[in-house]
Structure formats: structure tokens, C-alpha cells
Design goal:
The protein contains 4 helices and no strands.
Length: 114
């Protein structure tokens, strides 16, 4: 059988209350991750060699930019995207007014506006 592992997969670093209770995955997805996630992670990191054709297809689709059709690769790819650091975009600037190169206080010489 593919993705066999003795240990249940837990990622308490990213999911302190467990994968199942994170709200990021469906019940089916979290069950597959908990059952097969250790083997999937080992395949992804290269510490384990593919045991059969299913695991080879998993690795090929996981590391390609093509459309993923393998359900195990879809779930693990989703896991990898969820644990990536989130990018935060801010719409304000941080710093002093003199760093901006202008005076926005309204005082000063108004002759430049004429």
C-alpha cells in the first residue's frame, strides 16, 4: 500500500490544536494527512524513496507546475501552501516626515504653489 507509515502525522508547530481542528482542511483531507502525512513529508524532503508508482506520480505532480490530478498531491500541496508564511501588505508608510522628503504640516512658504 502507498504512503505507509508507523507514525501519525502531526504538525504542532503550525497547528497547535491539531490538523483536524485547524479549520483549514476538510474532515477527509485532515484524515488523509494524519494517516499518510508522515510518508508524504518524507517523500517531499527526499528522505524516503518512492515505493510504488502511486508515490512516483505523487512526487512528479507535487514538484511540477502543471495541473495536479492526483488527490494525495492536491492535499499535500494545499498543506504546504497553508504552512507558508503569510505576506502582509500594508497601505501606510512607516517613518518620520523628513524621510518622506516633504512637509505635510501646512506651514512654510506657499509661494511655490503659485
Amino acid at each position: 500500500m502507498s504512503f505507509e507509515s508507523e507514525k501519525q502525522f502531526n504538525d504542532f508547530q503550525h497547528f497547535a490544536r491539531g490538523i483536524r481542528r485547524s479549520g483549514e482542511f476538510s474532515i477527509r483531507e485532515s484524515g488523509i494527512l494524519e494517516k499518510c502525512g508522515t510518508a508524504m513529508m518524507e517523500l517531499h524532503l527526499g528522505t524516503r524513496k518512492p515505493a510504488d508508482e502511486t508515490e512516483k506520480v505523487f512526487l512528479e505532480q507535487l514538484h511540477s507546475d502543471d495541473v495536479i490530478t492526483d488527490p494525495n498531491a492536491k492535499i499535500f500541496k494545499k498543506y504546504l501552501q497553508v504552512i507558508q508564511p503569510r505576506r502582509l501588505h500594508r497601505l501606510c508608510s512607516v517613518g518620520a516626515d523628513d524621510e518622506m522628503g516633504g512637509d505635510f504640516g501646512g506651514s512654510g512658504d506657499d509661494s511655490a504653489m503659485d
